[in-house]
């Protein structure tokens, strides 16, 4: 995957993700899980979010490849996920979003 543009990813997060997910020092799970430290996190592992059984049992470890697949098509990557999102089919935008998420350790 090509390196993404962090600023473009920030704008995309604000317009497509921030209504359900949060990042940054005050991030907390709400309608969706908070996304700080997402890289190398086991899917469905935050104690403060009620994931679907399918997400908890998916066995996924979030890395660039699994994140890209999930962002592109959540329901195909984890059938039964609670995430109600059509996905982002543009690979450049996916790379930008992942680059932005990597800034939150």
From TrEMBL:
Q: Among its keywords, does the record have Electron transport? A: yes
Matching InterPro entries: Cyt_c-like_dom, Cyt_c-like_dom_sf, Cyt_c_1A/1B
Which Gene3D superfamilies would you find in this protein's record?
Cytochrome c-like domain
Q: Which intervals hold domain Cytochrome c?
A: 4-105
One short Pfam name that applies is Cytochrom_C
The alphabetized UniProt keywords are: Electron transport, Heme, Iron, Metal-binding, Transport
Please list which residues make up the signal peptide: none
- Superkingdom of the source species: Bacteria
Mind telling me what this protein is named? C-type cytochrome
Q: Which species?
A: Pandoraea commovens
């Amino acid at each position: 995957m090509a390196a993404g543009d962090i600023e473009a990813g920030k704008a995309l997060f604000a317009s497509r993700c921030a209504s359900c997910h949060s990042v940054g020092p005050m991030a907390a799970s709400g309608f969706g899980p908070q996304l700080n430290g997402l890289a190398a996190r086991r899917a469905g592992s935050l104690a403060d979010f009620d994931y679907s059984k399918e997400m908890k049992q998916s066995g996924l470890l979030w890395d660039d490849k699994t994140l890209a697949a999930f962002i592109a098509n959540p329901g195909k990557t984890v059938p039964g996920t609670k995430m109600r999102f059509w996905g982002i089919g543009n690979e450049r935008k996916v790379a930008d979003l992942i680059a932005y998420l990597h800034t939150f350790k």
